[in-house]
């Protein structure tokens, strides 16, 4: 494994690269996919047919026999060229009565990433990774403690979503067949540090078939620890996705400790970019705040946070800290959580405490580390 400079669209200088994943149709625009088909001596529309099987029917290479509109004599060639296997499920683990499923994926170069599928009564959400590991080094986050391996490709990101859609279509979770409705980029990695792949993935998710999954941009959420240039770029892309800002402290002194990138883009600068994002897109910003007992959960810090957010298009998601190995910090007590919420609401700031789905299988916020949980099923 060697260290190399990230491409110009990414916002961190060094990314550890193993090998480039094979070309996949989700990496390519419609014209690029068609060009591949023509290079194989096939009509361009064959690429559209294959893309429809992938994005609309969620078929994989092993399902090629079901692609009956593709002539048998060309099917294997086209599938081999545009539908390589990018991710293999190493382990899966279920909890919450089977309504939450975490998958540890192995990439073709041996990196491990995680995604989490969560079924609720009115929606189904998948939490996806944008990097293998993370370079942000937030001390309360298991991914940050493990460091960065490499950026994911566009197709490696999209494949996590397509697998979740496939799982729902086939009725593999309790409750029978359903539809994937929401995607949150809150898994492993800092999405805005892999900007080019993130943007291309977002476009694949919202484009109608045969060019994408046809999801609503308003059902997509991109989380960031506060990479200001990326926030500003995303605001101008014409994609009204929700921005989730992982703030975790209202003051620079504490945020420097909890979110080390704050030494580069401090609280005032990050919030200015967030408010500009809300103004440009018309989308409410989600402020993510992990409540850590005796660290950032005092009434005084609640008041300081409320003063920063009052009058802004924002909602605070309070997250009782989820336990991770290597950290002695604990979640705030329920009474402390209630006091924090009340102090924010007293200043007119909407706030809720997030449901801690998946804690028992290390699938909750901050716990993703690509380590097989004690309670698991072997890969599918």
TrEMBL record:
GO BP term, pick one: tRNA methylation
Reactions catalysed: adenosine(2503) in 23S rRNA + 2 reduced [2Fe-2S]-[ferredoxin] + 2 S-adenosyl-L-methionine = 2-methyladenosine(2503) in 23S rRNA + 5'-deoxyadenosine + L-methionine + 2 oxidized [2Fe-2S]-[ferredoxin] + S-adenosyl-L-homocysteine; adenosine(37) in tRNA + 2 reduced [2Fe-2S]-[ferredoxin] + 2 S-adenosyl-L-methionine = 2-methyladenosine(37) in tRNA + 5'-deoxyadenosine + L-methionine + 2 oxidized [2Fe-2S]-[ferredoxin] + S-adenosyl-L-homocysteine
MF term (GO), any: 4 iron, 4 sulfur cluster binding
Annotated residues for binding of [4Fe-4S] cluster: 134, 138, 141
Segments forming domain Radical SAM core: 120-359
Alphabetical list of CDD domains matching this protein: Radical_SAM (cd01335)
Cofactor note: Binds 1 [4Fe-4S] cluster. The cluster is coordinated with 3 cysteines and an exchangeable S-adenosyl-L-methionine.
SUPFAM superfamilies noted in UniProt: Radical SAM enzymes
Name used for this protein in its record: Probable dual-specificity RNA methyltransferase RlmN
Native source species: Parafrankia irregularis
Origin organism lineage: Bacteria, Bacillati, Actinomycetota, Actinomycetes, Frankiales
Gene: rlmN
